[in-house]
Queue: 2 jobs
Job 1
Amino acid sequence: MESRAFSQDDFAEWSKNHIAYLHVSTRLDGKKHEGLFKEKGFRGFPSFCVMDASGQVVAKHAGTRDVAGFTATVAKGKDYVALREAASSGDSVAKMQLFVKDLELGSMSFARGSLKFAVLEDEMPARLQREAKAHLATLLFNEIQAGLIAKSRAGMDRAEYMHEYETTMLEFFESGNIPAGYAANSVLSTVFRVAQKRKDTELFAKALDVFKARFEGDQYYGRRIAQYERQLESMRQ
Amino acid sequence: MKTRILTGIAAGLLIAPTMAQSEKAAPTTPKQEQKKAQKIQPVKAMRLVAGGQAGKAPDQAELKQRFEAKMAEAWIENANWETDYDKARAAAKESGKLIFAYFTRSYAP
């Protein structure tokens, strides 16, 4: 990845317009800022983000790993900074938008986000409410998943882990709290699997409806719709 | 709706002990933030967890060697990477530029 994306001449040129910061997690004792990766809310390598001068994450990179993709992420970061300025000058809509952005960036825990949402909800436009709920579901999903993985590391029995994982994913699905973005696939693919095991066509069909609503036209998952449709058809026969 | 959210908070508090455990969890994910969310499946997560526990952990001397090898990779020379977090923030403050941060690791491939 590094030799491809960062060895290009256009990246060298592009990086001059930003402060290119490289953080290497080493597991070396006493290394300064060793824990920064986790402090910024990342869980997998490699990760990229845009930060302001205080170190606050203002955008997380999720696009292509090239100059065009990095430029788009920096643009998102600039939008965040502008929104923050508008919010601090008293713009109430900007405040709500900023809150939703902070949820999206994972800048707060699920519990804190839920408390703030309870305060702001009544004033929020319906679109922002929907976005906030999806991001809250993502925060909860990430926290529960991290907890499950930690339990597994601590020696949880594999069958027990699988059971708890599937149960949790089903609870997300049944509660209607489908996480935003690609985390939704983690929930839905588990529901598909469970529905197949149980031969539960109704559950499979419901999951497929949600999957379509989320991923129709998506470059990664859009293609899977036809495959799931065929599976449903075969379950019905 | 508020009731639902508060119920959610209660659920969040119930999982607090496991969340606390997760603070100690090492990264377990695939290569990209997007892909991380899409790819963590139970079996895969279990495999990663098992992999993390298997074998002897490298000692500090080996970790230092791995770090030095990482920092000697050719791609680092292609741009003016700042590796000191405090200096990066100071430079951003002085220049008014945003920080583009890349997080990688040397302790494992």
Job 2
Amino acid sequence: MSANGDTGKDEEMDGLLSRSLCSETIKEVLAGSTDIVYREIRIKNRADPAMNIVFVNGMVNQEVLNKSVIDPLFKYISLSECTALSQVYDLCAGGAIGIADIKETTNTRDAVDGLLSGNTLLLFDKLKRGIILNTIGFEKRAVAESTEEGTYRSGKDAFVETFRTNTATLRKKIKNPNLCIEEMAAGKQSNTRIGLIYMKNICNNDFVDKIRKRIQTIDQDRIMSLRDLGLSIVSEKYTPFPVFITTEKADTCCISILEGKVAVLVDEIPYAIVLPGVFGDMLQSPSDYGYNFLSSSLFRMLQYACFFISVVLPGFFISITTYHPDMIPYKLAISIAGSRMGTPFSVSVETVIMSLAFFTLIQASIQISRTIGGTISIVGGLILGEAAIQAGLVSPAVIVVVAAASICSLAIPNKEGSATVLLFQGLCTAFSIVLGLLGTAFSLLVILFILAKLEPLGVPYLSPYFAAEKIHLEDSFIRFPRPMSKWRPAFLHPKNKRRMS
Amino acid sequence: MKKTAPLILILSAVMLCQGCSFPQKYKIEETQNILIFGVDSKGDEMQVTIVVDSIKESASAGEEQVTYKAYTMTGQTVFEISRNLHALTDKRISYYHLKYVIIGEEAARKGITECLNFILEDHEPVFTHRLLITRGITAKEFIEQASPQSSSLADYLDSLSNDLKNTGKSSEVRVIDYAIAMKRPWISLYIPVVEPDTSSVVQAGNSQNSQSVNVKLEGYAIFNGDRLAGFMDGDTAMGANFIINELHGACITVQDIKGQSASIEVIDSRAKIIPDFSDPLSATIKVSVKANLVDYNIYADISEEEFLRCLEQQGRDNILNKIEKAIVLAQQNDADMLGVGEAFHHKDPIKWQSIESGWPAIFGGMVFFVEVTLEIKGTYYFGAVEEER
């Protein structure tokens, strides 16, 4: 962590960007990023490299680059006749290159900004000057809207299968030279390309080192899935809670990277994992930032409430109707009792049957194609709801409770978290059937025990609620107004702790 | 193993804490809830009347059919009767939703300890059940006469209890208050009184929901120890409520400066008992009342200060009169239901020890000074109406 980490600026990077423009400076500025391509160009009849072409792989239109930049440099006769490098520069700036949109510069910062936006840099090291050529053009595999994660007033672009397109998408969103995209390979046979993406000036080096080291030591033939990769990186291999965020949204990824987390991209997988994940990540959505801080805080609290309700509600209902009817207000008690008249099963059996039916419905809707997904909803809704009540198999109260708990579980933004909630809902229900409210309380204790034990990459999973350092709640179950959210999460130990000066 | 050991320990602890056995299950639909528990004395025996609900299968979703039945049984003790009552009902009866414990006058005169022991000691009833005493009638007769045909008597009593906040002629007393009074013998218990109100008989007509006899819930039954010592009527009970800080709203009617009737509504009342240990023992009761002028002669010009001062003076006198009547009645019965003994006890617990044993008699002969202040805060006055118009 830098000593001046609290100033909100990166003096080292500023120093580099204020140096004179040349290819060495650019290399130093973008050190560590393997998606930057450097190419020396030698003009005919000249022994020394006359110029360097620099561009970001995946962000330029290769065809335009070859035909309008590379070809003219070798074929333009006048260039070979130049005796001085300044003549070459003048010719290039004056029309030897077939690009309409060019810009001369001697400023390293302008050059880097242009480069990271997808332009090609033509650098004349000896002259300390450069030309920015507009060759912007990404891979044309359509970047579609996320299908699994909802969006509201936030970026809709999701990751695609092309690794380079994904890195370019992140570059597009974070036009900062501190964004580092490291590449490495994992999988003894598959040699799968894996990218580590983080902010050099924000992210704690410990995270990067740990992740890099663990990826390098992966002893598998191939990377089967992101979950395999994630579990290879963290120590908590058996926990049901998501200890890393899996997202297909570039927005979510960028927000996390800028907080000081590390994103991992895998070639051919249209998702990224973000490490380390904490409990709150499961219940937050990038859409939260699209709302006013008050609305956003309300929605966040609702997400937490949904988590709690989803886990506890069926078990709690069984407990109070079976063991503690004195806890139910009288009017509600007779309403529940009235609705249960004539049903053959106990509340416990009904709840278990309905919960299992719901889980099955979810599984069915995941497995089947979208075209018949609607059919499943209708059949499920009819059979589980209307028909079951009319047949007198279950009481309406149980349907309401299971449906409410299920809707709450689906309201959790993180789908893996949603599945985890269902798992613990089952646990809580089982304990409640046997022990009543004691069982409900015990299952909550077990959940708390598991949560408190988790420390992905050394970060307490219940951060920022239980932290050794000062607890920052600016962006937790409530969201403070932007001017008050000055600090990055302390539990990530970022190099640069301030979001804003 | 290190991780699982704490889990096993917690699980074992949970299992052991609840008595090495699984909790008892009840089916909510196979339970009848006792809503009212009436206790009477019948010769040497006790008589218990319960009102239970009976839920039938609903014709359509969300529409349960609830009817209410009353069962009566006699026995040597309340516990014995409550166990035998199970045989009368077709489902398990439960005290979880019991709302009112009504004690007949005769049983109360013999002592309410015998009536309430079971309620205090059994695990199902809780201490928040409301206590009522019938006057001139047994609890059984009251339940039979006052029960509406299809709705719940408990709901009807709830409604009457809520109205007490406006009338100030009684208050809610719960089983916990009885338990406290039994632990602190210098406190005399008071319990609200219910009786059929024969003065306002409602025509049953065609409506199934109307009841044949109205119920009057006002006044207190005053206890000396656990025995009923006497009754306090509604107005006197209001005076007592001023002292015990149980008055949340009341209407006081006085005469204005021109002799016309005017009503003031009490919106806030605070009382403080200041004990004095000097011989003879005395206590000063300071009552501060805030009120609104609600109903008065519309032709009166209340912007005249004299008009309001006159009303305040008369209101003060009215309240003072009620308070003095309450004190006199309590002293006549040697029943310190006003919390005077508590005030002495709190002021000097050491000196209190010397008078504690003979407190009822001391209370009966004590000197009281009462100071009442009344302030009319609001008048809803929009200007006097000219009489010619």
